[in-house]
Design brief:
Elements lengths: L2 H11 L6 H13 L4 H9 L7 H13 L3 E4 L7 E4 L6 E5 L5 E4 L5 H11 L9 E4 L8
Parallel strand pairs: 3-5
Antiparallel strand pairs: 1-2, 3-4
Helix pairs in contact: 2-3, 2-4, 3-4
């Protein structure tokens, strides 16, 4: 079963209709990598003018509820969505230059183990964003 078949099956099994708009929105998230709802809308509108921003938000909510996309807050603005077909990762965001770097979850192994063992807490890495500044001295 391909990724496309899997998400179509998940939509149907959850009682949601498979619509062309949903297909376009999920494809946009996968193609863009990390994208805000406005960026998804701009991408989708290249293929269909029939989609509006409220459709984007509703669809992203449905897709996230089904575990097909995730969101992270990479700024104080709208959330950024990415496909779960991408590798599991968290984000480093520089407050000076705005650079975003995806980092694999293995970097957090010790912290995850400590939180699990000492606090009975399981970290959701896909929603984690760490803010700081580039050590190399970026320009503001």
């Amino acid at each position: 079963m391909t990724v496309a078949d899997d998400w179509r099956t998940r939509l149907r099994e959850s009682g949601h209709r498979l619509t062309p708009q949903r297909e376009l929105i999920l494809a946009a998230v996968e193609e863009l990598g990390h994208a805000t709802p406005d960026q998804v809308l701009a991408h989708v509108r290249q293929q269909s003018e029939a989609v509006n921003i409220s459709t984007i938000y509703r669809t992203l909510e449905v897709l996230e509820g089904l575990g097909l996309v995730r969101h992270a807050h990479l700024s104080d603005r709208a959330p950024t969505y990415h496909s779960v077909t991408d590798h599991e990762h968290f984000h480093l965001v520089c407050r000076n230059c705005g650079r975003v770097e995806s980092v694999g979850p293995d970097v957090l192994t010790s912290l995850r183990d400590t939180l699990r063992d000492d606090h009975a807490f399981v970290v959701d890495v896909g929603h984690l964003t760490v803010f700081g500044t580039c050590a190399g001295g970026c320009s503001s």
